[in-house]
Amino acid sequence: MGKGAAAVLTIRESLEQLEQSVLSPYAALSVRSRGRDVPEPQCDIRTVYQRDRDRIIHCKAFRRMKHKTQVFLAPEGDHYRTRLTHTLEVSQIARTIAKSLRLNEELTEAIALGHDLGHTPFGHSGEAVLNHICPDGFAHYKQSVRVVERLEKNGKGLNLTWEVRDGIKNHRTSGHPSTLEGAVVRLSDKIAYINHDIDDAIRAKMFVEGDLPREYTDVLGHSVRERLNALIHDVIQNSLEKPEIIMSPPMEEAMKGLRRWMFEHVYCSDIPKAEESKAQQLIVFLYDFYCANVDKLPQEYRIMMEEQGEKKERVVCDYIAGMSDSYAIDQFEELFVPKAWKI
Q1: Which of 133, 214, 254, 280 gets the highest tally of CB atoms within 10 A of its CB?
Q2: Rounded to an integer, what distance in angstroms lies between the CA atom of residue 238 and that of residue 264?
Q3: What letters, b where the CB count within 10 A reaches 16 and e where it falls short, cover 287-317?
Q4: Which residue has the higher pLDDT, 271 or 97?
């Protein structure tokens, strides 16, 4: 390069400059990230949040979500949501909101795609039983962080940026994300599951659309499509050019009311809980077996105990939490169901 010639920017650097010129002053810029626990060279074409998104999509825990329960355990039919399809719907809603508010779409997407990586087999019923039997307790949002920090890549973790991990950790109702992008995912998670769980419950013939309380549907809309459209527009309109992600009071109260109704009539009802006790007992059997037979754990989990000082109960919990519904059932059958004798 001749004397005085301008330096040639990499594609990543050009994208970072574009962020600074286009995004909202409240957006989390890639160049201002607090970075990774283990520093590493920058990519020449992807920003730090793009790299995080790609790492999550390619990790094993992400792929396993396709066979993890959302609400209905082992449903018959291809159209019921799984933990993976829920995650994709959250990502789509969150990206729509983030793009409209000129927030960092890559950061938003990375948080959304990673927020449920720590969920157990058999949905929240699996989470509840692990929380009961594990000495250190269990919460899926903490486990999601543990997955990306500790469990993926044979104990090396994904080495994600601080902002993505913060958003994953704080996606729960009581969470307080440090970025607006994390706040968008936190709200998008609720918007997604309330509406797609209504759709699944109607498909399961638990009720019909007209059974939903009119005091909520008159505000939110009288179909899944109408409610999603109304909620997303409301968040955007009330958060535009503001340093917070909020909804209008009437819309927020209606959404909370519909969520309470869903807990009473769907989440705690007999149909999705019909097999819950069996699923929870299955997890207890697996937990007790592996605690008593740690030599039967995969090598990567044994190494965590033998070389890295992890407690047995924690590692067994990690292994079971990572199972898909179908794999947990297969393991139970392999360990506890007698096989037919053949000559």
Answers
A1: 254
A2: 29
A3: beebeeeeeebeeebeebbeeeebebebbbb
A4: 97
Q: Which amino acid type is present at position 281?
A: Q
User: pLDDT at position 2, please?
Assistant: 47
DSSP for 21-61, written as a single string = HHS-TTS--GGG---BSS--PPPSSS-HHHHHHHHHHHSHH
Q: Which two tokens stand for residue 298?
A: 């995969």
Q: Are 70 and 86 in contact (CB under 8 A)?
A: yes
Q: Which two structure tokens, joined as six digits, stand for 215?
A: 């005091």
Structure tokens at 202: 């109607």
Assigned token pair, 241: 């050019």
Helix (H) or strand (E) holding 304: helix 299-306
pTM: 0.95
Cβ proximity of 314 and 307 under 8 Å: no
Give the span between the Cα atoms of 295 and 291, in whole angstroms.
9
- Is it the case that residue 270 has pLDDT exceeding 90? no
Distance CA 320, CA 327 (A): 10
Identity (one letter) of the amino acid at 117? L
- Cβ atoms within 10 Å, residue 89: 20
Q: Are 283 and 121 in contact (CB under 8 A)?
A: yes
* CA distance linking residue 311 with residue 130, whole number of Å: 15
Exposure class string for 29-56: b at 16+ Cβ within 10 A, else e: ebeebeebeeeeeeeeebbbbbbbbbbb
